[in-house]
Amino acid sequence: QVQLVESGGGLVQAGGSLRLSCAASGRTFGTYRMGWFRQAPGKEREFVATITGSGISTYYADSVKGRFTISRDNAKNAVDLQMNSLKPEDTAVYYCIAITTPNDYWGQGTQVTVSS
Asked: pLDDT tens digit string along 10-61?
């Protein structure tokens, strides 16, 4: 099993930045992909970004490409999401996910609110 704890959410003005962090424990970090999803009020949870176990490859939703950066530190068992040029439509609860076989594991979520 994998336990995940997110931190770093908050309130920011449009155009501002936030950095989310996700601390993992349990299985050997670095052997599985990590990612971020988000869920806005009244909407389905959607993919934001993912990163391979080695950290070499990253993938982003079109809506955040060029503004968000996912990274991981396997020595610290942590994955971060740097969010720049934030827009009101980025407002959501952001969830960290560990993508393992056979199960995926989710964090409890952290709220990000972007005011216009």
From this structure: 999 999 999 999 999 887 899 999 999 999 999 999 999 999 999 999 999 9
Sheet with 2-7, side-by-side order of all strands: 2-7, 18-26, 78-83, 68-73
**Coil, helix or strand at residue 90:** helix
The full DSSP string for 4-36 is: EEEE--EEEETT--EEEEEEEEES-TTSSEEEE
Cα–Cα distance measured from residue 77 to residue 92, given in angstroms and rounded to the nearest whole number:
24
**Spatial contact of 49 and 71, defined as CB atoms under 8 Å apart:** no
